[in-house]
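Why predict the complex rather than its parts? Because the way molecules touch one another can change local conformation, and only a joint prediction can capture that. The input here totals 718 residues.
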Amino acid sequence: MHNRNIWFWLFLTPVILGLGLVVVVPFIYGFIFSFTDWNGITATKFVGLQHYINLFQEDEFMASIWFTVKFAIITVILLNIMGLGLALLVTRNIKTNNLLRTVFFMPNLIGGLILGFIWQFIFVSVFEDIGMLLGVESLTGWLSTTSTGFWGLVILTAWQMAGYIMIIYIAYLENIPKDLIEAAKIDGANGFQRFKNITFPLVAPAFTVSMFLTLSMAFKIYDQNLSLTNGGPFNSTQMVAMEIVRTAFSDQQMAFAQAKAVIFFFIVAVIALTQVYYNKKREVEM
Amino acid sequence: MKGKKFYTGIASALLASSIALTGCSFSSGDESASESSGDAVTVDVFQFKVEFKEQFEELVSMYEEENPDVNINVKTVGGGNDYGAALKTSFSSGEEPDIFNIGGPTDVQQYEKYLADLSDTKAAEAALDGTLTSVKKDGQILGLPYNQEGYGLLYNKKVFEEAGINPDEIKTMDDLESAVKKLDSNKKELGIKAPFAFPAKEKWVIGNHLANAYIAEEFNHSVMDAYEADTIKFEMADQMKRFLDLQNDYSIQPTLSLDYSQQVEEYFSLGKVAMIQQGNWVYNTIASMDEEFAQNNVGLLPIPVEGYEGIPVGVPNYWVVNKESEDEVVQASKEFLDWMYTSETGKKFVTEKFKFIPAYEGYEDLEIADPISQEIYEYVKAEKTLGWVFLGAPIGWTEDAFGVAVQEYIAGKITWEEVLEQSRKAWEQSRK
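Output of the joint prediction:
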């Protein structure tokens, strides 16, 4: 910490400069533009808080926030359960350990857009065919209603991200000292007790990380949304990110979209930071 | 002491990076200097039609060979929304293109201060009647049409023949309905899944094309009338509903998750449905699935609108020249556009390679490349056309107001009256 001499700053320059130019400066610009009538080319007048007042009265924006919140709650719970479950599975002594890890992680390597199209095919065609074959009504017509669109997105996201979350849990699970587990065993604790009283508290830091990652990811999701449902039917499966892009580029209300984006930023920031704060408090120091 | 170090640190860092950055700008400066050596004029083209990118670049290199003192750089960014965004970005970053594309009157208004008057070009003179209305302003002609496009009901000739339906006899909605019913009752024998594939997932199919056929009349087939209208009356709402219901009810279900690529590639090209509502732009897609089918087996029916027997035809895009560019660049840009649409080489290229339906005079003796475009051109020559008024609708109205409302109607959430009411309100709201 005390070695901040010229060299320290010199080596840091590329990063600071990059971060500043592509994140900080545009962010400040965007913030300023949200108070003007900016149309993407020029801003002619200052409109104050007008956009912020309007956006809370817009049904579509509020609906997309609500949809995103529901989506976030479900996926965060699901992803953490699945991630931890998979991690527990592959940290046991099974022969195919490494193969399984690779397989579970693989979906995460495919881009969201392509995944969306693949799953679109599965939901629309494969589900349909299986449903017809087995006579299961609920497997047909996927993505054509709001609820199937919602669950389609949840399934896609869970499938894609579970492997990534798994890796984080694996890292923490493998760091749990074996002697603690052994001691518990000798004391006569059964498998569930060992998990509840030793493993679980010791992977708490992983929760903090995973919760943060899944939360912010669930809120910011865009490409999967775009390629899977494209907001349809009737814009009812539209996430906030997509709503903002639409406002900016198809309705051409750049400044209004910018105001929405600022609100979106605050929502995500507040939720994510509160969550980290509370989870940090729960962590156990070893 | 510590504070001092901090500031020296920052200062040296800034110094180092500014040196690095100037280095960058110097080197890029050199590049552009060497490019424009030999008194060449460099024209930057920023265009959006991905489908003909390669052919267009081929044409450009031919032009550069003929005119060694002109250097043309082509940049292509695809798809409606992305292009608009990318164009805006290049304007706000100061890298303004010399030739670019705009769509309808809304774009004209937005970019007005950049648009050069093109009325002194040969191409503007040769442009067909009505193709320039949306780019005319105060006696100036601000854009040159790309091409013409048209749409209707594309049908599978073989299926129609087998079903014993004569497409020439389908003139009214009743005729169409009975043909559809006939197809539907024989779908097993014909080997089709349904008469239609109606992609209700694609809001533009509903909001732009389907709606346009039935609102064109009330705006006198003019984009500008629609652009200036304070409200929309939906005078042909009943016919529109009938046509929509017909397509939706007799389509492969569920329509709300059926998309454009399924409609054209999976169902129509492979002969699983008898009809789709699309235009000449699908030709290449069908051909990539089944060349023979695309060449010989696709016919075009007009959408039945009372009092009309024609095809909605319009100009989807315009070339415009940036008047903020240097005078010689503007001149070179105009010459290039003129050459593309009025020289013999250019004309041949436009029809044969671009496969365009020309929006200019002087193409009478040239063969149009694909059969769908040919049929549309026949309608154009016979003046049996309806206007494309949807480009004059308020921004986002066609898809996010009308398209969404129709989707809700299809899902059974609202009635047809509510669709009209909602859409009318949205129109009036944005024209206040």
